[in-house]
Amino acid sequence: MIENGLVELSRMIYQYCGLNYTDRLMTLREKISKRVKELNLTYWEYGKYLKMSPLEWDHLIEILTINETYFYREEHQLNECCSNVLPKLKEEIHTRPIRIWSAACSTGEEPYTLAMLIQETKKFPPGSVQIIGTDINKKVLEKAKNAWYHNSSFAFRRIPKVLMKKYFVEQDGGYKIIKNIRDMVEFHHLNLLEADRFAPIGEVDIIFCRNVLIYFDQETTKKVIRNLYQKLTPGGYLFLGHAESITDLDLGFQKIDSDKTFYYRKELKQHEEVRYISR
């Protein structure tokens, strides 16, 4: 029999971060039972504990979020961004750096891959592209900031050898990303549902938010996409995972189909021209 306390926990989690366990209560129980037992609490008591000890949310998020990622993931999108989108933006932007936001960046593989590929183009001098990585999970952000990955990590399973050789150094049984690539990326803790805390991100020209929406229901998806929309400059670009689509949601984006992938562009209103801000 499902405990009422577990139902209440699923509601609290949904409100906090959009993860919907309301119809997957047994899955939620499997994920959190160990933590609840460690604290010697019932599910009802754990819900009260979250309200009294907000830092416990950090621990719970570590348990609930899936952080499976790797370098050079969904390479067609990465190549489209670096080969086509960035050169277009470079032609149009002259007064400030191009800004890319890797939302839900996990342990940093996505933003660092973008930094490496941008470096490979040899078209963008230092400081001309800024990359921001954010995640709701503070633990994975610390790993991202450290930029060290164990040599047996699955994170390396798709990365070309040329990138490994140029942008990593062996260190303590693993590989650390070199400094000039690390310097291209800054990291922030962020919940994509809390738009009132987006100020440190500033306006951005490109957003990568891949393989995140698959964990949300339609209502939460709309809220997240609206929040991202507000941070994009007019005409800015949004990359989602291949299994994710917002085409039918009428959220102000135009779908762009390229040879091997698709992505979205923030639609311009009739009276609106592409504008670029100075920072």
Automatic annotation (TrEMBL):
Catalyzed reactions per annotation: L-glutamyl-[protein] + S-adenosyl-L-methionine = [protein]-L-glutamate 5-O-methyl ester + S-adenosyl-L-homocysteine
CDD domains to which the protein is assigned, alphabetical: AdoMet_MTases (cd02440)
Enzyme nomenclature, EC number: 2.1.1.80
GO terms classed as biological process: methylation
Pfam families: CheR
GO molecular function, one term: protein-glutamate O-methyltransferase activity
Keyword Transferase: yes
Domain of life: Bacteria
Keywords, sorted A to Z: Methyltransferase, S-adenosyl-L-methionine, Transferase
Domain CheR-type methyltransferase: 1-269
InterPro entries (UniProt xref): Bact_Chemotaxis_MeTrfase, Chemotaxis_MeTrfase_CheR, CheR_C, CheR_MeTrfase, CheR_N_sf, SAM-dependent_MTases_sf
Protein name: protein-glutamate O-methyltransferase
Organism: Neobacillus thermocopriae
